[in-house]
What we know:
The protein is α+β, with helices and mostly antiparallel strands. α2 (85-98) packs across α3 (106-119) and α6 packs across α7 (322-335). The strands form two sheets. Strands 1, 2, 3, 4, 5, 6, 7, 8 and 17 form a nine-stranded antiparallel β-sheet that branches. Strands 9, 10, 11, 12, 13, 14, 15 and 16 form an eight-stranded mixed β-sheet that branches. Mean pLDDT is 95; it is low at 1-8. It contains seven helices and 17 strands.
Amino acid sequence: xxxxxxxxxxxxxxxxxxxxxxxxxxxxxxxxxxxxxxxxxxxxxxxxxxxxxxxxxxxxxxxxxxxxxxxxxxxxxxxxxxxxxxxxxxxxxxxxxxxxxxxxxxxxxxxxxxxxxxxxxxxxxxxxxxxxxxxxxxxxxxxxxxxxxxxxxxxxxxxxxxxxxxxxxxxxxxxxxxxxxxxxxxxxxxxxxxxxxxxxxxxxxxxxxxxxxxxxxxxxxxxxxxxxxxxxxxxxxxxxxxxxxxxxxxxxxxxxxxxxxxxxxxxxxxxxxxxxxxxxxxxxxxxxxxxxxxxxxxxxxxxxxxxxxxxxxxxxxxxxxxxxxxxxxxxxxxxxxxxxxxxxxxxxxx
Length: 350
Ligand SMILES: *Cc1c(COP(=O)(O)O)cnc(C)c1O
């Protein structure tokens, strides 16, 4: 049974929470703010899910758009919370600067996220359902630009959509392949959350799927000897002596989940942690491997295939390795309010 907590008197939508999957479901309200003549307007909540922009808008012609992904949860005691929104705000500011877009002020970003979740509280899945509310802040160049240059006008929006449990029907370790494509150039845009990084990853992921793999492992574009990340998640490895290792590179997107897990490993589980270059040649010696991101927290990897050469992780194909499981349980425990969070990690939406 789902427990009702304080502030949870309102009716939840009658959705089949366990089976909604990861699809866009239109909710009641979204936040919109426009940038014009050098300033952001005060922003409003609107019921209109449609965006009307000129056919020559900068986002449509030159992909001037950045986004964020985060979640709201119902805790065990019935509070609605979000996780480290200050880091999403800061990362979106970095992404915007890299694409010559005006920064949406970080405090206003957090405020817009809170307002949007609060306005759609009926869509925040109940505790215990395994489902969560996915939050998508984003911004794009909205006025017409035909010569290649930054837009003068922008729109910042936040919408939310409930998403089902990631590990529906149990945890199944992934089989991934070394991609023949590169994700990010050295000194390119791999470290920012921009639509352009995803547009060019679609062919690579479809190719991996056609070849029977769940995901791509991208290597560094310059030498193709070092592990970078997948299309949308950072790697964590566990050594045979229980050290937690994550690749360091300027072209990796700094995952908030990965940074949080490294903190949890060190401060909650007392494990040694290392953020350093990871050679692909070392991967065969690791005990566990996982992909970290907001969607799944950690997805275990069971097998890595490099053009026919298989690396089978000792943690196997049946579930999470022991350390991965502890990391997962501790971080989700913090997010669900079961385990005390570090200062500032949990922001309550009242
Ligand atoms: C969003 C994203 C991640 C995961 O970041 P989180 O903040 O943990 O959700 C990892 N890699 C890429 C390329 C991403 O876009």
